[in-house]
Structure formats: structure tokens, C-alpha cells
Amino acid sequence: MDTTSRVSIIAGDIEIDLEGAASDVEEQLMLHRQDDTWTIMLDRLAQARTEALQAAVSAAKEKGLPERGSAFRVLLDTCSLERKPDQVLGAIHYLRGVEGIQDSPPRVINQLFEDAKIDPPGNLSLYLNRLRERNFLMIPAGKEDKNRFAHLTEEGRAHLDKRSTA
User: Fold this and answer.
1) Where does a domain end: 63, 86, 107?
2) Residue range of the domain that includes 154
3) What would the pLDDT profile of 122-143 be if each residue is shown by its tens digit?
């Protein structure tokens, strides 16, 4: 039994359409990854994702929907974030990525939990410091090592992604 594999990617005027045996498709894909076209395509996809997120946030703000507490709760449920440290990581992701808030003192994070009708974390600094120790959060240079400016690292995003597929 012959099986064929197919990969088809279209990003604007760039199109990659590969078909054949799995090993042939993988080899062709490797060649495309070494080409500038692959980098351009990834940049376009990242830009499209960013624009879509910004449009969704703008539309939600204009319409007043979804209410932030329920939107945060959906994030927690979707990603199966049940443990408090994971919920704090989700809160930072939500505040930075969805609401565009870059300065979130403890009262802002606690209010997000209260809006979602979830018990706030309590000793927030403890959770934030432990998430930093696990390299899930980092504080940008020049922010005087203040937790209120923490944002997710690639490892933190990967952790949330892993939770959403679990």
C-alpha cells in the first residue's frame, strides 16, 4: 500500500504545495526551510496572527464583549489551568496578549481573578517568583526587577500550549 503525504501552505503570494512519499515531502520541506521564502512566509503568518488578535481585541472592546472575567475564565478552562501557578501564568498571558496591559500590579491581577469569580492567588509575589525561577516569566531590562512588568518567555508560552493540548 503506497501512502502519499501532502503539505500545502499559502501565505499571500507565497505558495508551498508538496506531495509524495513522506520522506520525499520531508526532504522538500527541509529545502524550503533553508530558503528565504520560508522566513518571509513565517513572518507573514506571524503578522497576520498579530493583526487578527488586534482586530479581535478592538472588536471586543468596541462591543464590550466578552466581559473580561468570562474571557479569562474561558482561557483557564480551554488550557486546563487548574493549579494556581498555572492560572497566574495564564493571567499574565491574558493581560499582555489580549488586553495589551504591560504594567500589571498585584491589584490588577487579583481583580482579573475576582472578575472571573476565582479566588485570587493571595501571595502573588511568591507565584511570580517561582514562575520566574522556572523560566516561564521574565522582567524586561530597565524595569528595576519589578514583577508587575513580567511577561511570558518562550518556555512559558510552550507550557501554556502544552496544557491546552493535554
Assistant:
1) 63
2) 68-165
3) 889 899 999 999 999 998 888 8
